[in-house]
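User: I've been trying to design a sequence by hand for this structure and keep getting stuck. Would you show me what you'd pick, starting by listing the structure so we're on the same page?

Assistant: Good idea, let's start from the same input. This is the structure you sent:
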């Protein structure tokens, strides 16, 4: 694939700067008045999702210029290269074939597709056997609980999917342990009986400190409960590319489900990494989850630029990040079961696009991935929404709203919907000084008091936001939603010219962690670190003594 052209050198860049200057002081409400078809024209449909992006500082001309930017960045060819399995992860010389993990045909990648379907068949066996109560532990009792031990991409996706799709759960409870803090494992094990527990050691590399430490402790817990070494095969599965290391740990080949180096950890929920959530919801539902993502892949590869939802959302990210100086993006799912979505998206977007050099090694001279954060509505309304409405930061928002609830509590759900729509509208319309004054007058306040308080009630509005709706949160719509954000992340990486599929920045901390642990454990005495770290290590020694 051709080396990326730096963003600022793309032909549309100066025009976009000019359009951004023009729109900086514009009123989004005025944009609605100027374009009567806006509410309809600034919407898109894909794979059961509906995107309303009408409440943005964007008009048709700016949208057209953004499309030109994507075209000049070679977006069509780059999307085709991604889906065709070219080595888009150029620093590691690998493809990034998460789309193949949910495909229903090989389309030129038959060898890899055969491997995928073989693993899917094995996943189905586990999901069915566990849900049918046929997997027995060392004492002959049925396995009722599965604990996924993994971190980052080997945890966040399956954990999110399991929590989000509770109404679809079968007969097995799935739990997640990620943190090396022993409290995480201990709290989880307190609720469980070893005789009924299966651990899935989920680690692409099988080298991750947190996962290996927790897995060893889980192994000891099982042995101390009375299981013999020979019984461990009934209680431990591994999901990894590193079958040798899994074997060294004591998990034999027949209990390992493979993963491939052409699947990025944060893009791996569709692979055997998703086994725990496939067990939680049952195989048919997991297939629906894959089908939803596949529908989004099809849309991504076939829809023209202007109708392409992931591309459009990515262009909005670049629009605000590179032309308005936004360094934040907030995701607000108005569905309690999606409360883990911001955590998942943080790894997806920030580990992918938090980079300072382009894929050709040249330093960027523009912002790349913004900080992504958020929480489930309505909780944030009683905490950080104050900053969204009146703070000084520009923080574009994505509201995510299933239009129906599985709870049957329709009246109460109506309140959730009302809150979501109200927040989206309030961010856009704000409250003028005059409206603030008349609200205070209406409370019977004296003129002096009105003048004193009115500035505090003023809300500037024009705070851009999108609303993504779906009929209901189901395995299929959740699959489509996650694939939407994956492809949005890819497109933004292409516009910034960076490789979204490596993560070299995580290594140094791990290396220093090994050195610090050596010092704390007394296994290494050599070397001095900076005075601050030395003092902190001493503080730990003192506390321990
Ligand atoms: O340290 C970051 C990271 O490598 C992530 O990219 C990855 O998802 C996570 O650690 C876990 O890695 P593994 O699946 O190899 O244990």
């Amino acid at each position: 694939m051709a080396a990326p052209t730096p963003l600022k050198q793309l032909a549309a860049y100066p025009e976009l700067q000019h359009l951004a200057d023009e729109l900086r002081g514009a009123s989004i409400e005025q944009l609605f008045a100027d374009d009567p078809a806006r509410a309809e024209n600034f919407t898109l449909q894909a794979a059961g999702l509906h995107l309303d992006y009408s409440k943005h500082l964007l008009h048709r001309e700016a949208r057209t210029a953004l499309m030109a930017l994507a075209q000049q960045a070679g977006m069509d060819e780059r999307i085709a290269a991604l889906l065709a399995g070219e080595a888009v992860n150029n620093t590691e010389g690998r493809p990034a074939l998460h789309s193949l993990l949910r495909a229903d045909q090989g389309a030129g990648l038959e060898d890899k597709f055969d491997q995928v379907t073989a693993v899917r068949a094995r996943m189905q066996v586990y999901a069915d056997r566990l849900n049918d109560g046929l997997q027995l532990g060392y004492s002959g009792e049925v396995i009722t609980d599965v604990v996924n031990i993994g971190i980052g991409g080997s945890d966040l996706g399956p954990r999110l999917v399991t929590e989000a799709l509770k109404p679809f759960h079968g007969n097995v409870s799935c739990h997640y342990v990620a943190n090396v803090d022993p409290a995480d494992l201990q709290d989880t094990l307190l609720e469980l009986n070893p005789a009924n527990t299966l651990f899935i050691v989920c680690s692409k590399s099988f080298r991750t400190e947190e996962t290996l430490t927790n897995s060893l402790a889980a192994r000891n817990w099982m042995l101390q409960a009375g299981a013999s070494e020979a019984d461990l095969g009934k209680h431990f599965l591994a999901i990894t590319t590193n079958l040798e290391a899994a074997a060294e740990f004591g998990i034999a080949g027949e209990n390992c489900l493979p993963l491939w180096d052409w699947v990025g950890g944060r893009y791996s929920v569709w692979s055997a990494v998703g086994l725990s959530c496939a067990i939680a919801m049952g195989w048919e539902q997991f297939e629906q989850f894959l089908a939803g993502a596949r529908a989004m892949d099809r849309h991504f590869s076939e829809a023209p630029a202007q109708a392409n939802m992931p591309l459009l959302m990515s262009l909005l990210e670049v629009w605000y990040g590179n032309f308005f100086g936004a360094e934040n993006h907030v995701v607000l799912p108005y569905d309690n079961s999606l409360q883990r979505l911001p955590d998942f998206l943080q790894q997806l977007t920030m580990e992918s696009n938090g980079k300072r050099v382009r894929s050709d090694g040249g330093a960027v001279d523009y912002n790349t991935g913004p900080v992504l954060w958020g929480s489930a509505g309505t909780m944030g309304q009683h905490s950080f929404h104050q900053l969204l409405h009146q703070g000084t930061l520009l923080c574009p928002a994505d509201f995510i709203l299933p239009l129906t609830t599985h709870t049957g509590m329709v009246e109460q759900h109506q309140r959730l919907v009302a809150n979501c729509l109200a927040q989206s509208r309030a961010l856009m319309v704000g409250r003028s000084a005059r409206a603030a004054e008349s609200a205070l007058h209406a409370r019977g306040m004296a003129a002096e008091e009105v003048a004193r308080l009115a500035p505090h009630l003023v809300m500037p509005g024009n705070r851009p936001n999108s609303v993504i709706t779906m009929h209901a949160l189901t395995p299929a719509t959740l699959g489509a939603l996650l694939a939407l954000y994956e492809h949005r992340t890819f497109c933004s990486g292409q516009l910034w010219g960076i490789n979204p599929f490596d993560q070299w920045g995580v290594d140094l901390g791990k290396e220093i962690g090994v050195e610090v642990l050596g010092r704390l454990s007394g296994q290494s005495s050599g070397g001095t670190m900076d005075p601050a770290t030395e003092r902190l290590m001493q503080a730990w020694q003192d506390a321990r003594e």
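That's my pick for every position. To get oriented when you compare it with your attempt: The CA atoms of residues 444 and 450 lie 9 Å apart. The longest helix spans residues 110-131.
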